[in-house]
């Protein structure tokens, strides 16, 4: 038996840098450092653990929709241990919202072939957390979202979803889609051997034509949502420095009380 897993990974602007917007109110992804969304590392990790615990022949493909630099996110996932990568890139994708992104991902996943799709719980930039559900609907497969434990056995994926008051055990027959949380297990660091091996792993590039998607189905024109305005947050004001000259503790307590923290 073989099991084909597709892991959706997003290349996101580094959250420690300033978020900038371009003139058309889209996020500036060109002039900022980016990286593999931290929450998607958990999705890659779960795919690797399924593979390691399986007697089946498991193939892990990582997939991203993003600009040229998004290849960095794919390389990181490959160096963690994924087998191959697909990069969907096209100038007409600029400004595509979640509906367009899910369309592109669905077409790419269908073209690649799959038994199980794994996504993160949310991206660290858009953080909508809805893409997995929309993607499952587009693929017409069952979804089990926000899992903190995933297992695959006998053509079935099972998982635990931890809520505030109860833990649910979910089960779906393959093909299916699951999203995993940051509680699913620490993501591994790529080893030196993994980094070297990743350089030789295949990375396919597809554009909209390869996926038979028309330009007006994506981009700003095809988006169901529009951003009306975007503004930088006001700069942080300077903090208050309490110098300890014998009365530091008292001054600190007074400050915290004044701010109603205590
Ligand atoms: C170059 C570029 C320009 C964009 N411009 C806009 C824009 O102007 N307006 C707009 O609304 N949106 C835009 N998007 C799309 C947006 O960044 C999100 O990809 C999309 O809206 C999904 O929202 P989210 O990241 O909040 O998804 P979430 O639902 O928070 O993500 C959940 C999971 O879905 C998967 N996922 C999400 N996005 C991708 C992806 N791109 N590739 C692979 N897996 C993914 C990951 O596994 C992630 O953990 C753009 C994307 C790109 C790459």
TrEMBL record:
<dbReference type="InterPro" id="IPR014729">
    <property type="entry name" value="Rossmann-like_a/b/a_fold"/>
</dbReference>
<comment type="subunit">
    <text>Heterodimer of an alpha and a beta subunit.</text>
</comment>
<comment type="function">
    <text>The electron transfer flavoprotein serves as a specific electron acceptor for other dehydrogenases. It transfers the electrons to the main respiratory chain via ETF-ubiquinone oxidoreductase (ETF dehydrogenase).</text>
</comment>
<dbReference type="InterPro" id="IPR014730">
    <property type="entry name" value="ETF_a/b_N"/>
</dbReference>
<feature type="domain" description="Electron transfer flavoprotein alpha/beta-subunit N-terminal">
    <location>
        <begin position="24"/>
        <end position="215"/>
    </location>
</feature>
<dbReference type="InterPro" id="IPR012255">
    <property type="entry name" value="ETF_b"/>
</dbReference>
<comment type="similarity">
    <text>Belongs to the ETF beta-subunit/FixA family.</text>
</comment>
<dbReference type="InterPro" id="IPR033948">
    <property type="entry name" value="ETF_beta_N"/>
</dbReference>
<keyword id="KW-0813">Transport</keyword>
<protein>
    <recommendedName>
        <fullName>Electron transfer flavoprotein subunit beta</fullName>
    </recommendedName>
</protein>
<keyword id="KW-0249">Electron transport</keyword>
<dbReference type="Pfam" id="PF01012">
    <property type="entry name" value="ETF"/>
</dbReference>
């Amino acid at each position: 038996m073989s099991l084909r897993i597709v892991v959706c990974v997003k290349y996101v602007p580094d959250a420690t840098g300033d978020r900038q917007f371009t003139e058309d109110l889209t996020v500036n992804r060109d002039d900022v450092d980016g990286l593999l969304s931290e929450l998607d590392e958990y999705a890659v990790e779960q795919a690797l653990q399924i593979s390691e615990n399986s007697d089946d022949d498991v193939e892990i493909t990582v997939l991203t929709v993003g600009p040229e630099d998004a290849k960095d996110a794919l390389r990181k996932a490959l160096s963690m241990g994924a087998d191959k990568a697909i990069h969907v890139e096209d100038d007409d994708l600029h400004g595509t919202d979640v509906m367009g992104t899910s369309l592109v991902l669905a077409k790419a996943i269908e073209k690649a072939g799959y038994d199980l799709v794994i996504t993160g719980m949310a991206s660290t930039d858009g953080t909508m957390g809805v893409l997995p559900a929309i993607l499952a609907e587009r693929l017409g497969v069952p979804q089990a979202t926000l899992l903190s434990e995933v297992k695959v056995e006998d053509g079935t994926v099972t998982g635990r979803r931890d809520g505030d008051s109860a833990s649910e055990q979910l089960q779906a027959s393959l093909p299916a889609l699951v999203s995993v949380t940051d509680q699913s297990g620490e993501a591994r660091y790529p080893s030196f051997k993994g980094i070297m091996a990743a350089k030789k792993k295949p990375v396919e590039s597809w554009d909209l034509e390869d996926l038979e998607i028309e330009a007006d189905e994506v981009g700003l024109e095809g988006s169901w949502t529009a951003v009306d305005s975007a503004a930088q947050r006001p700069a942080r004001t300077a903090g208050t420095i309490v110098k300890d000259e014998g009365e530091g503790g008292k001054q600190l307590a007074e400050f915290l009380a004044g701010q109603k923290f205590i």
